[in-house]
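Design a sequence for this backbone.
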């Protein structure tokens, strides 16, 4: 997690997956390193808007016994002439990382079994789509577009017994596949639900950032963790590529459904035409 941070601080953060609270501390240090090296852990917590124990845990995540040791390691970065990076630099670093993430997906497109998976998903009815917590957003987007070209997409974004019931009902109705979006931080109940889906006989395809995720087909795209919360440009691009593959798998049905949808929205006046009011 080095991009957009002061060089020395970036080296300490490189390869670390920080929680949102810990990222707030990292961002404050990056922007105010010249004054932060003289703050106590209580003062740093107050300035960063976190608790004092969070500062201590942050230091320990970076491999230090506590905050005093981290502060001592950071002081040469400033006293030796370094300075914190402005917020604009942090944001540029985050966008640069997303550009690189998208480039990774572009270079690996041929390696993904998009055509094969698109054919499987287009053929299965119904098609359950799972996404809990932060993964709900991308799962909802995928399901929204998939519904334009598939007759029965079932979005499952609530955990617990409702998720289990939804998977069971989909399997009883004839589903052969389930698509899940699983992005960090990874909900335990999502993993457990997909294990249950496998026991039901459902084949599992996952959009995630982890190539080692336990599923029959894994479409992995890197996630940017340069801001307080992750951003998901690359997984979104991969999800849309999968929708495209589904559309290509059944071109006649796709055309008929899209034309029907256009007629329906025209008749209902669903979308604005011309200039906005």
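Sequence:
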């Amino acid at each position: 997690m080095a991009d957009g941070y002061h060089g020395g601080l970036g080296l300490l953060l490189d390869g670390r997956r920080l929680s949102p609270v810990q990222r707030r501390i990292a961002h404050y240090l990056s922007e105010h390193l010249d004054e932060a090296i003289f703050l106590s852990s209580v003062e740093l917590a107050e300035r960063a808007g976190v608790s004092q124990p969070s500062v201590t845990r942050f230091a320990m995540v970076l491999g230090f016994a506590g905050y005093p040791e981290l502060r001592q390691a950071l002081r040469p970065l400033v006293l030796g002439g370094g300075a914190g990076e402005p917020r604009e630099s942090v944001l540029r670093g985050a966008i640069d990382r997303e550009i690189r993430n998208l480039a990774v997906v572009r270079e690996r497109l041929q390696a993904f079994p998009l055509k094969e998976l698109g054919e499987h998903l287009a053929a299965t009815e119904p098609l359950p789509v799972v996404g809990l917590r932060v993964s709900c957003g991308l799962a909802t987007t995928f399901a929204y577009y998939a519904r334009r070209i598939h007759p029965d997409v079932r979005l499952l974004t609530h955990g617990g017994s409702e998720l289990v019931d939804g998977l069971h009902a989909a399997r009883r109705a004839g589903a052969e596949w389930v698509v899940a979006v699983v992005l960090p931080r990874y909900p335990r109940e999502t993993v457990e639900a997909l294990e249950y889906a496998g026991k039901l006989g459902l084949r599992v395809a996952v959009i995630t950032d982890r190539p080692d995720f336990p599923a029959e087909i894994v479409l992995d795209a890197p996630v940017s963790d340069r801001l307080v919360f992750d951003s998901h440009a690359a997984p979104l691009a991969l999800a849309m590529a999968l929708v495209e593959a589904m559309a290509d798998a059944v071109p006649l049905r796709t055309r008929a459904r899209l034309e029907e949808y256009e007629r329906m929205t025209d008749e209902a006046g669903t979308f604005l035409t011309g200039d906005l009011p």
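The chain has a mean pLDDT of 88.
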